[in-house]
Write a structure and sequence with these properties.
The protein is α+β, with helices and mostly antiparallel strands and 230 residues long. Helix 9 crosses helix 10.
Amino acid sequence: MQGERGKYLGTMRAGSWFHGLPAALQDCLGQLAQVRRLEGGTLLFSRGDPPDGLYCVAEGAVRIASTSPSGKEALLALVEPPHWFGEIALFDGQSRTHDAWAEGPTVLLHIPQDALLAALRGCPEWWRDFGLLLSQKLRATFLVLEDWALLPAAGRLARRLVAIAEGYGEWKDRTRRTIQVSQEQLALMLSLSRQSVNQILRQWEARGVVRLSRGGIEIVDVAALRALAA
């Protein structure tokens, strides 16, 4: 990777999926990557848009969401470095399933759809690696559905905080202690009221599990939070 792309190579390699790719595929993605910078609140793509490729978050965050006709938002995830997204449309060639917004100033590495498909035609064995990326998302989706069916609100909140702290499984051997996510965003992710989220977090704060700050949450006792998520 050369120039501006080069400084983000370390971010890409920090992710478990990219780290596990064959060296030739890592090099290919590095060569195809285009740097895109978005201001906060910028719409990257909308539900129903045609596919335009794969993305890796290099800096900042992307909000993956959908909005009902009445204007109510469902927040699926806040995607942070070194997370990849957009692989569903790579496989089926159909339109985007959700909206993607820049959550503050954001830098993305964009792998254009046509260029990536051309590379895959030349090396069809690489499809398995993208299948693994897709299966990771599918596995996470099944776990979320299970949480909604079986866990009370506090358990669901604890599991989501642990997942965010661990980068949804994308980071290698790392658990972040400070999470930049608002209570309103957590409420949207879990289909809870902000008041319910605040009440649970305040209880945990009193027990020394977390510490609340403006726009963020510090995990004080990781083991205790994992126990609440069990």
